[in-house]
Amino acid sequence: MSQYDDLLALIQSRRSIRRFADRPVSRDDLARLLEAARWAPSNHNRQPWRFLVLEERARIRALAADVGTSLETRLKSLPALAAAYAAEFARHAAFFGDAAVLIAALHKRPASVSAALLEGVPNPTLVSGEPLSVAMAVQSLLLAATALGLGACVLTAPLLAHEAVARSLRLPAGFEVTCLVAVGHPAESPAPPRRKRLEHVVEFLHDAPRRDDGPERNL
Asked: Is 104 exposed, middle or buried (0-12, 13-18, 19+ CB in 10 A)?
């Protein structure tokens, strides 16, 4: 098999794991995950990431409980249709309480850019590349977890309870949370998720004749 075949097989075998066995994750394995993450590309090689690693189960459970309570309270203040799903959503966002490890991936606050330059830009925070750089690092971490036989899942819903998350993590100055990653030994083997076919998500834009279309004709 080629390197591409090996890589694609690894990518296709990755799953989002939400149920974990009651087993610790070794420091060696955690170091391998983070080593893979730090080799991700970043805008101008700024490497704007920081990773906070929680291994204390009591602290992870306490954060999950705070997130669940905060979200349920917040969602119940919404219109009745949304409030009806408050408890279910809060439980879904706090499943990381059963993980052996919780990694908070942080991005450095983007450098200020001229307001005039950003005028009319739909998503100005993406221009600097900091959140995107961290997202690429997290993808490398997820693939490393799969290669090591670990399970992992990315969470962004807990960020709705940002005060609880910031209070527990004690964020370093100048950084914001990009996402949380629950890590542990998997206690489930989810089936492969459905994927849209390539022709449904890809469009080749041809502004000029392709070289393999044959010689150009003079019209």
From this structure: buried
Question: Does 123 reside within a domain?
Answer: no
Residue type (1 letter), 79: P
DSSP code of 218?
P
- Which string of DSSP letters, residue by residue, matches 137-159? HHHHHHHHHHHTT-EEEEE-GGG
List pLDDT tens digits, range 12-54.
Answer: 999 999 999 999 999 999 999 999 999 999 988 999 999 999 9
* Alpha carbons 135 and 147: distance in angstroms, whole number: 19
Of 128, 109, 144, the residue nearest 42 (C-alpha): 128
The answer as to whether 35 is a domain residue is: yes
Domain count of the chain? 1
C-alpha radius of gyration, the chain, whole number: 21
The answer to the question of residue 206 being in a domain is no
Residue 215 is which amino acid? P
Q: Determine how many CB atoms are found less than 10 A away from the CB of residue 132.
A: 18
What is the value of pTM for the model shown?
0.88
Note the Cα 5 to chain centre separation in Å: 24
The domain of 73 spans: 8-109+128-194
Say how many C-beta atoms besides its own lie within 10 A of residue 76's C-beta: 14
Kindly write down the DSSP assignment for every residue of 52-119, as one continuous string.
EEE--HHHHHHHHHHHHHHHHHHHHTS-HHHHTTHHHHHHHHTGGGG-SEEEEEEEEPPPP--HHHHT
Q: Which residues have C-beta within 8 Å of that of residue 128, sequence separation ≥ 6?
A: 43, 110, 111, 113
